[in-house]
Hints:
single chain, alpha+beta, 11 strands
Amino acid sequence: MPDFASSYLGQLRKLVGTRLLLVPGARIVIEHPSREILLQRRSDFGLWGLPGGNAEDGESLETTAVREIAEETGLKVFDLKPFGFGCDPGIETFTFNNGDRCQYFVLNFYTRSFSGSPRVADTESTAIDWFRISHLPDMLPNMQRSVEAYARFLRTGEFQMI
Length: 162
């Protein structure tokens, strides 16, 4: 697992400082047979969110999702299916504590196929747990919106633009 400084985004930050960056990435809803979804409590904001992250150079978004899940939760995921795309700048733009600004463009995937036991596997999370969609903890707004889009997708079967 590369550290932030050696990642694509870390290298770009060295060039542009805290300036707003447009960042492609992937999020994933991992659904347990009990119908609960896996969330991580993020160390940067202290709120819960979906596993996922930013694409590295040369990666597809599906590869990004698989890599990020392994890095963050220790799980191996299979059979990813896209259900929505997050691109609303009003909800996908963040300023981090260090002043870095990012606007995310995120392909949302889901899967029910995984192996392993979820665990905190890096410093990006302080906890990993399963939750019912009807009883979610306090979440980052863009992550909450992704979960809501997943619930709509399950009801309608329609790809969600969020």
